[in-house]
Design goal:
With 183 residues, the chain is of the alpha+beta class. The protein has helices spanning 6-12, 24-27, 39-53, 110-113, 119-132, 138-156, 161-176, and strands at residues 57-58, 62-63, 66-67, 75-76, 79-89, 92-102. 43% of the residues lie in helices and 16% in strands. The strands form two sheets. Strands 1, 2, 5 and 6 form a four-stranded antiparallel beta sheet that branches. This is PAS domain-containing protein.
Length: 183
């Protein structure tokens, strides 16, 4: 890790000086308590694609817990919308910029989820919206969906992915300048 901005420092719960100069997956290993943890593999694959293709790679919705600095050996539940972008020197990719939006409050852990949607439900709804707006980047569609869900949670006091999907569709129609295609 070469640099970290203040927003990532806050979101990751790690001080900057504990990250700079250290290997990425040493700072952010998979959570050993989560048998389905795939954050390291998925991020490594995304970074490899970014370097190989020299193009941005969006990872969709990714659960990737982070080590808890207050309780060594424990991890904090996190769900992200990450994208990796190449940093180029001429035609050569020399580094990658990793940008992640923390959406953990929109997709809480299963034990406290109650009627909250999980990552699979968000992916399915985002995929459906993506088919209705093929001209919009997937990260825009998912960003509008997660923001719509947050707005409804704050307004209604309860999660409702179906209503969030309807709100997102209206917002995407306004953004695209045309009605959604039938899905």
């Amino acid at each position: 890790m070469r640099s970290v901005n203040a927003a990532f420092e806050r979101a990751s719960a790690h001080p900057r000086d504990a990250m700079i100069g250290r290997p990425l997956f040493e700072v952010f290993p998979d959570n050993p308590a989560d048998v389905e943890a795939d954050g390291v593999a998925n991020l490594a694959d995304s970074l490899e694609k970014t370097f190989r293709r020299g193009a941005q790679h969006w990872m969709g919705v990714q659960r990737y817990d982070v080590p808890d600095r207050q309780r060594p050996g424990e991890f904090l539940y996190r769900v992200w919308m990450p994208v990796n972008s190449p940093i180029r020197d001429g035609r050569k990719t020399i580094a990658a910029l990793h940008h992640s939006q923390d959406i953990s409050r929109v997709v809480p852990p299963a034990a406290s989820r109650r009627c909250f949607p999980g990552t699979a439900e968000f992916r399915n709804t985002a995929d459906s919206l993506g088919r209705q707006f093929p001209g919009l980047p997937a990260e825009v569609v998912l960003g509008v969906l997660t923001h719509s869900h947050s707005v409804l949670m704050e307004t209604l006091g309860a999660p409702d992915l179906e209503q969030a999907g309807h709100l997102a569709r209206l917002r995407l129609e306004a953004r695209a300048g045309h009605p959604a295609l039938e899905s």
